Amino acid sequence: MKLRVFLRPALLVVALLLLATLAVAQWTAPNPVADFQKQPDGILLHLKVGTLKLEVCSPTVIHLIYSPTAEFPQQQNPVVIKTTWPQFDWKLDDSADSVGLSTAAFKVAVDRKSGAITYSDASGKVLLHDDTKTMTPVTVNGEHTYRAEDYMTLGGYGSTEAIYGLGQHQAGVWNYRGESIDLSQDNTAIAVPLMVSSNGYGLFWNNTSRTRFNNRFVHALYVSSEVADTIDYYFLYGPELDQVIAGYRELTGQAPMFGRWAYGFWQCKNRYKSQAELLAVAQKYRELGIPIDNVVQDWFWWNRKGEHVFNSNYPDPKGMIDELHGKNFHLMISVWPFFEPGSVAYDTMDKNGWFIDKTVVAKPPYHQNHMAVYDASNPEARKYYWKLMDDGLFKLGIDAWWLDTTEPETEGREENIQLGHKLAIGSGNRYVNLFPLMTTTAVYQGQRAETDKKRVFILTRSAFAGSQRNAATAWSGDINSDWITFRRQIPAGLNFELSGLPYWTTDIGGFVTGNPDDPAYRELFVRWFQFGTFSPIFRVHGTRTNDQNELWAYGAEAEKILVSYDRLRYRLMPYIYSMAWMVTNESYTPMRALAMDFRGDPRALNVGDEFLFGPAMLVAPVTEPGATTKRMYLPRAKWYDFWTGGSVEGGAMIDAAAPLDRLPLFVRAGSIIPMGPDVQYAAEKPADPIELRVYRGADGAFTLYEDENDTYDYEKGVYATIPISWNEASQTLTIGERKGTFPGMLASRTFRIVFVSDGKGTGIELSAHPDKAVTYSGGSLTVKP
Predict the structure, then answer these.
(1) Known catalytic residue: 713?
(2) What confidence score (pLDDT) does residue 420 get?
(3) d(CA 154, CA 742)
(4) Collapsing DSSP states into helix, strand and coil, what is residue 320?
(5) How far is CA 41 from its chain centroid?
């Protein structure tokens, strides 16, 4: 008698769950607790096989280490930089069935008979089961080690738990529940071993080898790594996802601020071929009055890779940079980790044994000779790598670094070049995902040691856990210029942001290949540019058939739309720069999946094509050609249409108007958005007057942040904040007392206050007739409608 034929549906469900339970029992061999000791920082448990340590780091962070032996072997791992924690009160939970611990926030219990671990919140709600651990002896790259596998169980039948994070991947998947994700650095794929759950916790898997998070069976999670001496992970409890991200950054480092200019518009293409071309583009932007802060020099400005000397197309690099600075531009330049023979740099690296592999060959059309990639795990090689950049580029005045191919990837081969090689830190297989963290470390620490008057900015094609502490922005790699690729950037970016790294961007328009003369491609570029306006970093780039990628290259109709969104970005600069302070000061995430702010709304958990830009603005990119409306979900709240001022209650799908010149954009009730005047570049003048748009319907608050714009004095407290709040019950706006000061701070300024409603306080242009205008000199004041 076959179950699928004769059992009723309810009984069939029970039978299938029973079969699944039996299967799990077969897969999870018991590893009972033999004894345990309470220690000042946690519990040490001796199991039938191996040793388990539960280290209590904070009320919301537990560090688990499992060794198959009685010892915990020590390996270098530069990812986690916080290794000592202040003591606090926690409780040992010891019973006949389990031993564990509890904090004010959550509980951990180890089953005495099986060794399985259960994580629960303070009320007893189960968050995650860690069922069994397997360490299989293997020899990898000549090293005797283990393959690590941890079998875990997610929410039970009917669970709506969603899984996010794990870096950046390009399959277009938002919620990874039921998916299998490989963590290995590749062009367009970024490995970050942080999994975040909508149930309010995160799992940071502390391993640098190739890893897999396998949840193909939706209740079973297998986490495995190719090289490991221990199973090592951190359980991070929120319950809000911002708190989970804050726990990750406490472990791996906070994200510093970029200069104010970096949050403006970046012009780039593949590639500017000469000094004259680059300067002409900058000049035309200024002549046309299109706001811009940055221009980018892509690859092949050199004679040889690794030799930081401009070729003859750039006869006066210092003069070029000075001229750009005189026009208030910043210049970013492409630097690769590869070196070609024939230079002093190559010979020095080679003599000192600082190369990973000297036989790398790039495929056509690049036609490069043999190249070598430097070993970024070697501290001396890192110092020399920065010295080359410092002497050849930074001393000329270069403002920002584009670190390309930081996987590192070489054309013409599929697997990472470090595999099968020995690095200074150890086996290339053990540390294969670490390269982007180490090479950004070289540049960040190098520039920080050189000066504190210019903030570091790094654009990197790959990243790893901890890269955020190196002032690194990742971009999504060499992606295609088509609609399907564009659609996939949104969930890719949202999952990257939920991996704890706050700064991310794409090649607006895609890298390969677009035709600005084609009306169909112009539409795609406009829609992508609208999305880019609300990305953490706002940058166009790509290969174009007519070799033009500037905003005027897309025809008059498109140019008008593009410039309007560029102006909007700059109008929002007070909001954006204040949000950047939140990133640094509060571990904030700027590009926010709906699950971050509406975790209790089940429908919001599976929306991966919308996001909040900061606390106020809901962005719904249009990703279908020819669309004039956007089917989108408004989470449970009151929302205002940014373009019309009309309001609507959320918790439902809507069809938002989306003609070509309109990106569906909504603002949550309770929001306060500061908008500045028109500027040509971010730091052209202080933001005065500021239009405060107040969206009534709920209490709200926003803190306006300002500083010197591009030094590290903010780390010493040299900045000012102005708290602004709206009380719905009393219908009162309070502009609070300013705290702090900095050189150049406005002693007095004007706030033009607009209480947004239908047809008032809308769109890009500032309001001609605000509801109130007040002079603010640092003291608290209140305003009513």
Answers:
(1) no
(2) 95
(3) 50
(4) helix
(5) 31
Catalytic residue among 131, 250, 375, 404: 404
- CA distances (Å), origin 686, targets 250, 533, 551, 735: 33, 21, 26, 18
Cβ within 8 Å of residue 214, ≥6 positions away: 180, 181, 221, 222, 223, 224
Q: Is 380 marked active-site?
A: no
- Residue 775: in which H helix or E strand, if any? strand 772-776
The DSSP result for 486-508, as a single string, is HHHHHHHHHHHHTTT---EE--B
Q: What is the pLDDT of residue 74?
A: 87
Rounded to the nearest 10°, the torsion over CA 45, 46, 52, 57 is: 30
Furthest-apart CA atoms within the chain: distance in Å: 85
Query: Closest by alpha carbon to 467, among 452, 456, 451?
Result: 456
pLDDT attached to residue 263: 98
Residue 667 to residues 97, 524, 634: CA-CA distances in angstroms?
51, 25, 10
**Spatial CB neighbours of 774, under 8 Å, sequence gap ≥ 6:** 735, 750, 751, 753, 781, 783
Q: What is the pLDDT of residues 594-630, one digit of tens each?
A: 999 999 999 999 999 999 999 999 999 999 999 999 9
DSSP state of 512: B
| pLDDT band at residue 363 under the 50/70/90 scheme | low
* Distance set, CA 717 to CA 253, 256, 456, 713, 742 (Å): 19, 14, 18, 7, 9
Give CB contacts under 8 A, 24+ apart, made by 741-749. 742/706, 742/707, 742/708, 742/713, 742/718, 743/708, 743/718, 744/686, 744/708, 745/706, 745/720, 746/686, 746/688, 747/777, 747/778, 748/775, 748/776, 748/777, 749/686, 749/688, 749/689, 749/690, 749/775, 749/776
Handedness of CA 385, 386, 388, 392 (dihedral sign): positive
Per-residue CA distances from 516 to 267, 270, 398, 554, 619 (Å):
15, 14, 30, 5, 25
Nearest CA to 456 among 330, 582, 275?
330
* Alpha carbon of residue 452 to chain centroid: 24
| ∠ CA 377-380-381, rounded to 5° | 60
Element (H, E) at 578: helix 573-586
Gap between the Cα atoms of 671 and 597, Å rounded: 13
Q: Which amino acid is at 407?
A: E
Question: What does the pLDDT read at residue 286?
Answer: 98
Q: Give every CB contact of residue 716 below 8 A, 6+ residues apart in sequence.
A: none
Q: Determine whether 97 is exposed, middle or buried from the number of CB atoms within 10 Å of its CB (0-12, 13-18, 19+).
A: exposed
- pLDDT tens, residue by residue, 127-178: 999 999 999 999 999 999 999 999 999 976 678 899 999 999 999 999 999 9
From CA 362, how far away is CA 429, in angstroms rounded?
22
Amino acid at the residue 647: S
Residues 6+ apart with CB under 8 A from 160: 198, 602, 605
Segment 735-751 mean pLDDT = 98
| 8 A C-beta contact, residue 370 and residue 337 | no
Answer yes or no: pTM beyond 0.85. yes
Tell me how far apart the terminal alpha carbons of the chain are, to the nearest angstrom.
74
Three state DSSP letters for 265-304:
EEECCCCCCCHHHHHHHHHHHHHHCCCCCEEEECCCCEEE
478 is catalytic: yes
**Which residues are within 8 A (CB) of 479 and not within 5 positions of it... i.e. 6 or more apart?**
170, 188, 485, 489, 506, 507, 510, 511, 512
Catalytic residue (choose from 161, 293, 407, 409): 407
Active-site hit among 149, 390, 409, 478? 478
Which pair of structure tokens corresponds to residue 496? 């990257």
Name which of 697, 591, 589 is nearest 650 in CA terms. 697
Of the candidates 286, 221, 338, 283, the one whose C-alpha atom is nearest the C-alpha of residue 679 is 286
pLDDT digits (tens, 9 = 90+) for 201-255: 999 999 999 999 999 999 999 999 999 999 999 999 999 999 999 999 999 999 9
Distances (CA, A) of 199 to 107, 151, 193, 403, 776: 15, 19, 18, 36, 44
> Is 16 a residue whose pLDDT tops 50?
no
